[in-house]
Amino acid sequence: MTDPEPLLAWYATLTPHTVARAGEFYAADAQFRDPFNDVRGVAAIEAIFRHMFVHTEEPRFVIGERIVQGDQAFVTWLFVFRLRGVPYQIAGGSHLRFNQDGLVVVHRDYWDAAEELLAKLPLIGAPIRWLRSRFRVPMPD
User: Fold this and answer.
1) What average pLDDT does the chain have?
2) Per-residue confidence at 117, pLDDT binned at 50, 70, 90?
3) Which of 47, 60, 105, 124 has a Cα at 20 to 30 A from 139?
4) Distance separating alpha carbons of residues 125 and 117, to the nearest angstrom
């Protein structure tokens, strides 16, 4: 059974200086995918997190529940950050697959970009909220 705890501790304490430790947790050809990125390799994964620190203020991950089975894990998390001083939270989950050395070979993040991020932004949020209200099924009282 794979132990995801060292990886999760790294995420929970991630800083611009510790991004370079990704190679301790990810295989050289690991795939990372989220709603905005689909990359391979440790350098590309590090680039995503460096980008995060440049474009968000005070980003951090709050790790939640974990389910581990064999060489796989699913972890829930909150991504907490600020944009131009405004606080945001994104709730999501990550499916992780590990190789025989305990390194991540596949990391797939699942979160709803429209609900968790875009609908909360000032300019593009209103049309997204309107669309969601149009497609929402009305429930009887």
Assistant:
1) 90
2) low
3) 124
4) 9
Radius of gyration of the chain (CA): 17
Find out whether 109 and 35 touch, Cβ atoms under 8 Å: yes
Domain range enclosing 100: 4-111
The total number of structural domains that make up the chain:
1
Do 59 and 88 meet the contact criterion of CB atoms below 8 Å apart? no
The distance in angstroms from the start CA to the end CA of the chain is 48
User: In this structure, is residue 103 part of a structural domain?
Assistant: yes
User: Tell me, what CATH number does 17's domain have?
Assistant: 3.10.450.50
Look at residue 116 and tell me whether its pLDDT is greater than 60: no
Closest CA to 93 of 107, 75, 80, 81: 75
